[in-house]
User: What shape does this take?
Amino acid sequence: MSAPANSIEPEFSITDLAQELDITTRTIRFYEDRGLLRPARRGQQRVYSRADRTRLKLVLRGKRLGWPLNDIREMIELYETPDGERRQLELMLARIEQSRATLLQQRDDIELALREFDEIELRCREQLTPHHE
Amino acid sequence: MSAPANSIEPEFSITDLAQELDITTRTIRFYEDRGLLRPARRGQQRVYSRADRTRLKLVLRGKRLGWPLNDIREMIELYETPDGERRQLELMLARIEQSRATLLQQRDDIELALREFDEIELRCREQLTPHHE
DNA sequence: CTTGACGTTTACGTCAACGTCAACTTACTC
DNA sequence: GAGTAAGTTGACGTTGACGTAAACGTCAAG
Assistant: This one.
């Protein structure tokens, strides 16, 4: 896919992304070192495309879910495998299923916790507004 | 060696819990060291009540959600504050709100990821069963 | 030309969350 | 009473995820 002539593809510096996403440049470079990002280079300097930015956001989402970087990398790789052999695709499906299982477990945990918090809050509020008969 | 014959309240040894919850005894002791557990003692040995077991399960749920132990400890403390002064209760409500916000964010992240996985899987399956016109 | 902001790599430090011994004690069995 | 199984504390090692500092390059502004 070639870029349309008059559409400007935005570029980002490492500090742009760091500020926007509220992380340090050190962190971004570290993610690159761990194979989570592969920004282009203009000379020495890293140049991030919109796709790179999206990737980074995916990493941060993984982090919020408590996933280790290796798992996050695998997860992200799922997003970018365009096509492959049958064997590859089946392996990919298996990984998706694995990740999905984790996500579903996490979702269940969250639902439970939320309900329990509702109850705790209720009891808490009952204490705050003493019930007079 | 754990269940009393005319059992009213069940007791658990550290290995009981370790085996049941699939963690090591080292881990359980570590959690105690970090203030997440406070089992009773019979002499030197730790004796875990059903409540301790529940607590430990809460810890593991927190772990599955990727929370650090400190946060988990605070979260668990919410479960066990019986009653307090108005000031205390209000502080507690604030903490609940804080935890709830985190949980809701995590839930959103999960829902998004799940949907994206659905899409990826779909494209993946399309590749597997080639569409001939 | 120098200063300062921003970037780079390399190396080492740090903190959390455990694992891995080692060196016991206690309890039970043979 | 010797062995063994399960428990204890204490110290040190390890891994993951960055922080911090050193030493240097680049470029625009004063």
